[in-house]
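Structure ticket #2291
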Amino acid sequence: MDVLTLILQIALAAISVLLVLLILLHKGRGGGMSDMFGGGVTSSLGASGVAEKNLNRLTVTLGVTWGAIVVALGLIMRFSQDF
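Resolution: structure written out below.
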């Protein structure tokens, strides 16, 4: 059980960093992925909408995974016999 807890903790730390980076890439007020990589070029090709959709899907998937790991770690801590 200790190895599983360690693996989940490492995964949680990695996913947390990735989530922060992905959230910073989202388009907000005057920012986002399309402006960072040359908004005029990507918007003229029409690929910006697809990239934003994929970024949204990836962010949601990682967010759900992050939440599942937090719940799993909480259950492991709750029901472990180490207390």
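Closing remark: Confidence is low (pLDDT under 50) at residues 40-46.
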